[in-house]
Write a structure and sequence with these properties.
8 helices; 20% strand; alpha/beta; 9 strands; 206 residues
Length: 206
């Protein structure tokens, strides 16, 4: 799926209240696309790199209130009556306890006692498994919660972006235009096996 199609599918996921999981190699612009879509839709944007987080970074730290333990919201957690996109990057680089917390977030839109505001959307991203990346295998029950998207940007899109933004030198653009394989990661295959379930058919129906 190229960039244009990805943006269309993400918008449809938002309308259908389905959580997308974007699979793709490093450095291809997954987070930039999701952030630019948030700006286009005039939504807030929170980017969490799960591979760098501990579970306390997600559910907050304990405190004492009226003789009981309560959990303080982490600083990144969205405020009530706001709208935005919560981008969970490096999903399969997260520690097991972090993944358990993410499971609840994707399923129930909650992190322990904290409830994600209604107008916030969740988007996840991951690198494919295999010899190239140090990643964890994800639980089939967790994988079943997502609409899986294989993202592979087209060379022409990257060249157009470089020209429009002026971020890529003309001689580099000319080189990539002539030898597109040098842009990197042109493989169409991502080793991923997702089996259907009643839940996944219901998500497709939405």
């Amino acid at each position: 799926m190229n960039t244009v199609h990805l943006r269309k599918v993400l918008k449809q996921c938002f309308r259908a209240t389905v959580t997308p999981l974007i699979w793709g190699h490093h450095g291809i612009g997954k987070s930039q696309i999701v952030e630019s879509l948030a700006h286009e839709l005039e939504l807030g944007f929170v980017d969490l790199r799960l591979g760098q987080m501990e579970v306390g970074d997600l559910i907050g730290l304990p405190s004492k209130q009226d003789g009981k333990t309560v959990w303080l919201k982490p600083s990144w957690f969205p405020c009530e009556k706001t709208s935005g996109i919560l981008f969970l990057d490096e999903l399969n680089r997260a520690r097991l306890d972090v993944l358990q917390a993410i499971f609840q977030l994707v399923l129930e839109r909650k992190l322990h006692t904290h409830v994600l505001p209604e107008d916030w959307k969740i988007v996840c991203a991951a690198n494919p498994s295999g010899s190239e990346y140090f990643v964890n295998e994800l639980d089939p029950a967790l994988l079943d919660r997502f609409l899986h998207i294989h993202f592979r940007p087209e060379t022409s899109e990257w060249l157009g972006w470089g020209k429009d933004t002026g971020k890529i030198r003309e001689d580099i653009s000319s080189l990539i235009a002539r030898y597109p394989h040098l842009l990197g990661h042109q493989s169409n295959e991502i080793p991923l096996e997702i089996l259907p379930s009643p839940r996944s058919w219901e998500m497709l129906s939405r």
